[in-house]
């Protein structure tokens, strides 16, 4: 594509339209061809605001299909954010319409009336992408007051008051928010009881985070799943780095004791040493969107039988199982106590050690919690 654009004898052919008014950039935006769109916009100097027969620009099509990379590219290259299509809709109208439609589809699947009324239906990636794109457009100057042919402004198409508030803030601040880092809906952070404090109490056994420390003692049933609350634990800072707040729930033990960065290195819970089978992000525990992240289990544990050539398990060799147990004990003594994946090759002055990758990130020893003043590498 780069070679073709550099050899074009007629540069205007980049903006040539088909019978339906589609240009090459329209097709690239429609089909999420990011590299092609980038070459057309930058090397080919394509007109970003050309409209098809429906008066849609390439940005309209990218927003409609929720192609976030194309949207980011077009906005940063200077596309007009307020061009109206044949119905008078701007790209911001389109983004908020998708957000509302996906929200309604999800609410139809919520059977619990309490969750329905509180708006706690699962937020899918479709809804999240639309809201992120809408905030991104608003932050880069999309007009919130333009009306379509039905007399609707973009905010009229969004019944979510939290998102409307975020859009207004983004438009007012004109900050260069990115699509993936825009501030999420306040409903994920605020306490469901008082709406003043932040969610910081982990309910057991359901594993949801629904309210602040002050309101938690009054809650007998989880406000998200309606399951009885047997215990409440305040979410503290990460026990590994002591720098960020814990944000990942380990399954099946149910502990939340590590931040996302440190949890990615772990195979066992640092609090109870239980094997981690699933990691659940804090956003999911708060009733937001996302999926549990599966963690491969360790196949060298006690009683793990050998796999024979016919595919069956050989459970008759107890000696092999004993050797496997001894090997596992040796590994636990020599492996890093944080990630349980690499050998210890860094020692602190307190006498405890970790691997270099984990040790470089710590300000306190993960065993005795003493401050790390010096790190010694072993060779």
Structure in words:
By secondary structure, this protein is α+β, with helices and mostly antiparallel strands. Among the domains are: 2-76, Ankyrin repeat-containing domain (Serine Threonine Protein Phosphatase 5, Tetratricopeptide repeat, Alpha Horseshoe); 91-188, no CATH class; 298-334, no CATH class; 336-379, Zinc/RING finger domain, C3HC4 (zinc finger) (Herpes Virus-1, 2-Layer Sandwich), CATH 3.30.40.10. Helices cover 31% and strands 8% of the residues. The strands form 4 sheets. The chain has a 3-stranded antiparallel sheet. A 3-stranded antiparallel sheet has the order 9-8-10. It has a two-stranded antiparallel sheet with strand order 1-2. Helix 3 packs parallel to helix 5, helix 6 (91-108) packs antiparallel against helix 8 and helix 8 (125-139) runs parallel beside helix 9. The radius of gyration is 27 Å and the shape is extended. GO terms for molecular function: zinc ion binding. ANK repeats lie at residues 20-44, 54-86. Keywords: ANK repeat, Metal-binding, Zinc, Zinc-finger.
Order of strands across the main sheet? 3-4-5
- Share of helix, binned: 25-40%
Question: Rg, please?
Answer: 27 Å
Reported for the largest beta sheet, the result is: 3 strands, antiparallel
- Which structural class do you get from the secondary structure elements? alpha+beta
CA(first)-CA(last) distance: 51 Å
Total E-strand runs? 10
GO cellular component, one term: cytoplasm
Organism: Atta cephalotes (Leafcutter ant)
Keywords: ANK repeat, Metal-binding, Zinc, Zinc-finger
Domain RING-type: 191-226, 238-273, 336-369
């Amino acid at each position: 594509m780069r070679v073709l654009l550099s050899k074009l004898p007629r540069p205007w052919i980049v903006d040539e339209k088909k019978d339906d008014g589609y240009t090459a950039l329209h097709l690239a935006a429609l089909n999420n061809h990011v590299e092609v769109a980038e070459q057309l916009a930058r090397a080919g100097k394509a007109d970003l605001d050309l409209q098809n027969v429906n008066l849609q620009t390439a940005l309209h099509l990218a927003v409609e299909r929720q192609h976030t990379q194309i949207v980011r590219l077009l906005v940063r290259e200077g596309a007009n954010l307020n061009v109206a299509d044949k119905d008078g809709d701007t790209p911001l109208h389109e983004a908020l319409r998708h957000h509302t439609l996906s929200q309604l589809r999800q609410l139809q699947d919520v059977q619990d009336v309490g969750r329905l009324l509180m708006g706690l239906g699962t937020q899918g990636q479709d809804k999240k992408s639309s809201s992120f794109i809408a905030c991104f457009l608003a932050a880069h100057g999309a007009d919130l007051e333009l009306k379509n042919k039905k007399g609707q402004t973009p905010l009229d198409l969004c019944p979510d008051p939290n998102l409307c508030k975020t859009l207004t803030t983004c438009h007012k601040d004109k900050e260069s928010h990115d699509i993936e880092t825009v501030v999420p809906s306040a409903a994920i952070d605020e306490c469901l009881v008082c709406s003043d404090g932040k969610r910081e109490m982990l309910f057991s056994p359901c594993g949801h985070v629904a309210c602040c420390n002050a309101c938690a003692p009054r809650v007998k049933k989880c406000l998200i799943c309606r399951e009885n609350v047997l215990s409440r634990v305040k979410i503290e800072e990460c026990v590994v780095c002591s720098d960020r707040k814990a944000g990942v729930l380990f399954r099946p033990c149910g502990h939340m004791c590590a931040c996302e960065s440190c949890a990615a290195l772990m195979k066992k819970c640092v609090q109870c040493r239980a094997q981690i089978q699933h990691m659940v992000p804090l956003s999911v525990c708060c009733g937001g969107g996302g999926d549990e992240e599966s963690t491969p289990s360790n196949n060298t544990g006690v009683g793990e039988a050998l796999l024979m050539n016919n595919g069956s398990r050989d459970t008759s060799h107890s000696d092999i199982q004993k050797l496997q147990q001894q090997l596992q004990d040796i590994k636990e003594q020599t492996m890093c106590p944080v990630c349980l994946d690499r050998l210890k090759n860094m020692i602190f002055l307190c006498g405890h050690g970790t691997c270099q990758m984990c040790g470089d990130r710590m300000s306190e020893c993960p065993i005795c919690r003493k401050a790390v003043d010096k790190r010694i590498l072993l060779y």
